[in-house]
Design brief:
The complex is a heterodimer of chains A (115) and B (113). With 115 residues, chain A is an all-beta fold. Chain A has strands at 5-7, 10-13, 19-24, 31-38, 42-50, 53-56, 65-71, 74-79, 88-95, 105-106, 110-114. In chain A, the strands form 2 sheets. In chain A, strands 2, 4, 5, 6, 9, 10 and 11 form a 7-stranded mixed β-sheet that branches. A 4-stranded antiparallel β-sheet of chain A has the order 1-3-8-7, with no helix packed on it. The N and C termini of chain A lie far apart (37 Å). By secondary structure, chain B is an all-beta fold. Chain B has strands spanning 4-7, 10-14, 20-25, 30-38, 45-50, 56-59, 62-67, 72-77, 86-94, 101-103, 107-112. In chain B, strands 2, 4, 5, 9, 10 and 11 form a 6-stranded mixed β-sheet that branches. A 5-stranded antiparallel β-sheet of chain B has the order 1-3-8-7-6, with no helix packed on it. In chain B, a hairpin with a 4-residue loop joins strand 7 and strand 8 (72-77). Classes of the chains: A mainly beta (115), B mainly beta (113). At the A-B interface, strand 4 and strand 5 of A face strand 4, strand 5 and strand 10 of B.
């Protein structure tokens, strides 16, 4: 069974460019989470969705960040314009419904470098 | 404030030793306390988890000890092996404030052969 799939695995871009990260959650999972990992701040929750609806975006750092989930099998995280301080590994995770264990299933991450 | 504080930041033990990683939380509404293991270049993966109505849970060489009154929990790795070298994150999931998991800062464990 396929896990959470993220693309691209690596992205190098220049400051000011638009970056789009993609995620395909595990089929049947109702929750989707976007996390950002840096050495300084660890794993930060950016936003999460339930049944394709954004529930909590309080972790989104600025208006430059936006996330969408147009259907149950696809989500995007967009940064426009990108800045060097956005360099990090971005993880997508999915989880089955609230009544289940609450386990998060992570993708392998998208490593973003903004020059 | 929904925070989970984790220590130590890094840990080095000999093979066969018992590394212990500690976490503390503030929000009494948390209802699920997982530990995740992360290898370089990979996403975190669930290792073991506990709910607040249980004081200890053991799965293989991994044990969680939970102290509800102190709002603390810890991970013990028995007979540690070089293959256990990884970053370990404690976490907590809340019921109130949304169905979201908050992570500790992580502990980098190195087990010497």
């Amino acid at each position: 069974d396929a896990g959470v799939i993220q693309s691209p695995r690596h992205e190098v871009t220049e400051m000011g460019q638009e970056v789009t990260l993609r995620c395909k959650p595990i089929s049947g999972h109702d929750y989707l989470f976007w996390y950002r990992q840096t050495m300084m701040r660890g794993l930060e929750l950016l936003i999460y969705f339930n049944n394709n609806v954004p529930i909590d975006d309080s972790g989104m750092p600025e208006d430059r960040f936006s996330a969408k989930m147009p259907n149950a099998s696809f989500s995007t995280l967009k940064i426009q314009p990108s800045e060097p301080r956005d360099s990090a590994v971005y993880f997508c995770a999915s989880s089955p419904n609230r009544g289940a264990s609450g386990e998060l299933f992570f993708g392998e991450g998208s490593r973003l470098t903004v020059l | 404030q929904q925070q989970v504080k984790q220590s130590p930041q890094s840990l080095i033990v000999q093979k066969g030793g018992i590394p212990i990683i500690n976490c503390a939380y503030e929000n009494t509404a948390f209802d699920y306390f997982p530990w995740y293991q992360q290898f370089p270049g990979k996403g975190p993966a669930l290792l073991i988890a506990i709910r607040p109505d249980v004081s200890e849970k053991k799965e293989g060489r991994f044990t969680i000890s939970f102290n509800k009154s102190a709002k603390q929990f810890s991970l013990h790795i028995m007979d540690s092996q070089p293959g256990d070298s990884a970053t370990y994150f404690c976490a907590a999931r809340g019921v109130t404030g949304g169905f979201k998991t908050i992570f500790g800062a992580g502990t980098r464990l190195f087990v010497k052969a």
